[in-house]
Amino acid sequence: MIKKLIGPATSLAAPVTLVAAWWILSAGSTSPYFLPLSDIVDGFQQTWTTERMEDDLLPTVRALGVGFAVAVVTGIATGVALGLSARARRDLRPITEFLRSMPVVALVPIGLVVLGPGQRMEAALVAFAATWPILVSTSDGVRAADRVMIDTARVYGVSARRRLLRVTIPAAMPQVMAGVRIAVAAAVGTVIVANMLASSSGLGYLVISAQQSFDIQETWSGLLMIGLVGSVLTCTVVLAERVLLGWHRQYRSLERTAP
């Protein structure tokens, strides 16, 4: 029982220490830009009323959720296809490298022209930005799948579809989930930038409008909420990873203890 509690306690030690240090070091601050953490917490409670959550938080969360879900489905499906086909990788690599290296900020004007302002455009940009880490990781994971296991399944008469679903994709899942975790940061950053540049609501709009009106307390409130949204999404992905890769952790532990 004690061993099970050591892991969570260790994980909480760093953020708790950071918050405590911030609280203590900022307690006597008189700078209008570096507010005491106690004032920021009070401002956070005042800012995030029910109306503000409906106007700014929920639209951002909806666009983020839809775009990220599309990115996961698209990235995994396309990554599996590229991982299985050397010809597809060769033919599509110039296109994927060109699109992957394009900054999302540069696509905001095109998104406004094609889709117009609103959550549809924001979700599309999130999907574009978050797809590439998942696609690349999935493709690499499929290519790195154990050929011995795949050939053994083929020898035993397992169909190509079952080999893909039962052998190749499970073997690639550790790298797939690593790509999904990387995509979280890309998705959150993209939706905030889209809010700032092309929206009249959302977390990014709140932060930029508060900054332009020199409302430092509200700016900090928006930044804290962005961090909370990103943390919740990251924790959700981590929990999904633990569920999907429980077998992998058991396999690794048996591998380490094997003579």
UniProtKB/TrEMBL annotation:
UniProt keyword list: Cell membrane, Membrane, Transmembrane, Transmembrane helix, Transport
Domain of life: Bacteria
Main location: membrane
Residue intervals passing through the bilayer: 12-35, 63-86, 182-208, 220-240
Localization of this protein: Cell membrane
Entry membrane topology: Multi-pass membrane protein
Gene3D superfamilies referenced in this protein's UniProt entry, alphabetically: MetI-like (1.10.3720.10)
Family annotation (PROSITE patterns): ABC_TM1 (PS50928)
Residues annotated as domain ABC transmembrane type-1: 57-241
Any one of the GO CC terms: plasma membrane
Any one GO BP annotation for this protein: transmembrane transport
Stretches of the chain forming a coiled coil according to its record: none
Family: Belongs to the binding-protein-dependent transport system permease family.
Name of this chain's protein: ABC transporter permease
Species of origin: Nocardioides pocheonensis
